[in-house]
Amino acid sequence: LMEGRLWTESMFAQELVLKQRTEILDALCSSGSAEHLERVLDILLAQGELVWEDYLNVQVLPEVQQSGLTLSGCSLTVGQKEEAQNTPSQTLLARRPNFVNKLQGCIDGALEALVASGHFSSGDCKEVQLPVHTPSQQARRLLDHVRSKGESAATVLLRFIQQTQECESPLNQETLTPPKEALKYQKKLISSVSAHSFFLSTYGGTSHMSLDDIYTEGELELAQHCPNMQGPLGLEDIVGTTGTVNEDADTVLISGEAGSGKSTLLQRLHLLWAQRAAFHDFLFLFPFSCRKLNAEQRELSVQELLFQHCCWPDRQQEEIFQFIVDHPHLILFTFDGLDELKQSFSDEHRLCCPTQQAPVHILLFNLIQGSLMKGVWKVVTSRPEAVGPLLKKHLRKEVLLKGFSPSAVDCFVRKHHSDPTVAAKVLQSLQANTALLGLCHNPVLCWIVSRCHTELLGCGEGSLLTMTDVYLMILQNFLQHQSAPKSTVGLGWIQEHLKTVLHLGQLAFEGLGATCYIFSSTDLETCGVTEKDICMGFLIQTKDMLSTQSKHYEFLHVTIQCFFAALYIILSSDTQRSTIPKLFEMQGVSETCLCCSFFRACLTHDDPQGCVEAEEARAVEIPNLQITAMFVCGLLSQRHHHLWHHCCPSATIQKRVNQVSRCLSKGMQKHFQSIPQPVEGEKKSMHAMPGFIWLIKCIYEMQEGKIAKDAVSKLEVDHLKLTYCNIGPVECTALAFVLQHLRSPVGLELDNNSVGDVGVEQLLPCMHICNSLYLRNNNITDEGISRLITKAIQCDNFRKIALFNNKLTDACTQHFSLLLKTKQNFLALRLGNNNITAEGARQLAEGLKVNRSLQHLGLWGNRIGDAGAVALASALEHSKSLLWFSLVGNGVGNAGACALANIIKNSTSLEELWLTENCITKTGVEYLIQALEYNTHMKSIWLRNNELSLEEVEEIKKRDPRLIF
Ligand code: ADP
Hints:
By secondary structure, this protein is of the alpha/beta class. It has six domains: about 1-55, no CATH class; about 90-165, Death Domain, Fas (Orthogonal Bundle), CATH 1.10.533; about 180-405, P-loop containing nucleotide triphosphate hydrolases (Rossmann fold, 3-Layer(aba) Sandwich), CATH 3.40.50; about 405-465; about 490-650, no CATH class; about 830-965, Ribonuclease Inhibitor (Leucine-rich repeat, LRR (right-handed beta-alpha superhelix)). It is about 50% helix and about 10% strand. The chain is built from 46 helices and 22 strands. The longest helix has 24 residues, at about 650-675. The protein starts with a helix and ends with a strand. Residues about 1-10, about 60-85, about 170-175, about 590-595 and about 600-615 have low confidence and may be disordered. The structure holds adenosine-5'-diphosphate (ADP). Its main location: membrane. It is a lipid-anchor.
């Protein structure tokens, strides 16, 4: 019977394989390398499911994906497992998957042993080490060859594997002595990387600030929550094991908004490597900039890419490259700004041969996927929008770069100004203007603000509010400080430099249209950019453009390019009427075609080549368009109209203002129309769609209450869900600016963002329309709470707050206590997973004693212990409002249980008590059971994972079904 069943099962499996043949083939080949297929073959061979002759018939060539697979010769001899494998060849076969892994790092040694023992010729070695083979393929070819040479060769190999195992870690760099030439090349590479990373790159020619002097740690976070993670993520964790989600992949992505410091972080990584201060595991580091790779027109091989774009070996290029191919784990590639590459990521064209030439983007995509140079670590940076699911599949992990924390802002400003009094003044004015402090969360804005300290200090408090304000400040700073003193009396500063602004504006605008961030002298000439314009400092010369002799330029930062594009849109007489509406239609769009059509429609200097390039432009441009649109809003704000006098007819400006207002209002309507009708009995809820936060920020840039009011006048929801929207302090400022005009109160759900204390402060203006505020997992400390509660106490509508998983301690509980004392309509307080102890519980108890309204109290995952439980219980003993109370995971023992029993005895309202994961024993539970005898309204007491034996649990369950385990 058993046999029959096995037979049916295997038949069924075969049928399944046949049925899903296409999917299986796809899965085996879609990675672009033969690796998946070969790994499956290893397993089949090892398990005896595939006989050797059939294995030889299966064609696994490097070009497998192009030639197609010939699986026809493969007969799966189900049930024909080999007898006990006892010859050396059989051992090699049976443990093939394992040996393939082991041999990868020590092919050279194994070959040496086989040559020395006379089993292998140099021809054999060459065949094994063909450059088209990945290290794992080399290992397989080695095993195949050994098998063909007979048992004695197999014995030699087995002995070699055993020996290397005994000497431990053949992959360890310390045991590996690279050839002399490789070490010389390393020296040259180090000095080149060091030279390129020594000065902070964006300061370009403007100021020579060494990276060591100015570098300030930004906040790094894993994109996927990692439960074992301890402490903050450091630079070295990028290439460490922490947070790995896909062991097979070797690409790490660092994602962050424009200006969040991605390039600077890579630069830091390069410098630390070059100084031999960190990243010691890597013998070679090859840095690439996607911006520069855009200019590479030729087809290159990986070898040419490395040597021509990074560092040229003076001698023995072939040997050095072979060394690189043979030791992938000692190599690190970095690619900065994947979002700036003209082509979007695709895994259609596959390559696995490092000597084969291909267009650079194809090389890059194959490197990222690991079909080329498997095992080499690659660190790639990009803006988040440019990373689609296709790319995510190939990531080992994703690290988010969140920008500067408030203390990093402080540290940056102090480093930036050698004069401590200036630094103190700058910091003082930032403290006085928290909207501006919020903007400084983004390092590029922090740099601008700090750079323009004279203007900053000259400004009245609070006059710099928006991103546009900050960029106007740098515009003024550069225009006025780098040109001769005012020549024409009576002209506004923009008017005086209008030509420069328009030339640079056109260059920026057309550049964005063609995904172009590096400009040739011809590009500059076409837009009329003169030497004088260049001297203003917005353009810096691109270092290292290898392709040509002529000079190339780029904007100080991509956001500055967007700013100039926006200036051009509002000031140029060439701008078409449709430009602004088209710019705003882009919201939430991720299809390439629409994006290109924007530029096709708007570019006045269209040329056929530009068109072809625009066709290739992608969704990646949307972030740039969105930033540009935000600047357009900001520049058209009433506050800045005086700047455009004599630069552009006021009627034109007004027309553009009207256009923008209409677009914003239309954009918001679209969002509201998509809100589904609520299910009966549920609240009407809106979940932010892509583009919602951006629209809010655009409205904020306008700084006009009326526009904000109009925008939300038709929004009728009970609950606004903005979870995982990358909301930081700047977004909070904008949200509060708009939402304060809502007509009826809402629940505002901001869980899983980066609100922080600065963001909390920014939310205060809209607190009066919040009936509940959810700020779970947002990096908030006691300081933020102190400000929040001071305001919340005055807001009648405010009834619920959830602060699960923040950084709260006993220092915040006095504020909640005051809130509970003052607000007799407050309903829910959830403080789970913070760091509150018995002392904090005592303070809360002070408030709870007086409060008559609280229904939900959640303290899960704190450390209040017995003493805390006793204090809370005594405060809540006679509560007539509390319905739900959680002390899960708080180290509560029998004394706590005894005190809590009093609430059960006396409270007329409590329905649910959560005591899961504490240390209550049978004695403690007895108190609860006794108390329940007096209580008929209590529904459940949760007691799972306390200190009770199975028998005790069984017995207790019988005594009262309301005790739940
Ligand atoms: P991104 O690549 O994310 O657009 P950049 O790395 O170019 O951002 O940063 C823009 C500017 O912000 C830099 O030129 C520098 O002035 C400043 N900056 C960014 N990160 C840091 C940092 N960690 N320390 C000091 N300054 C920084």
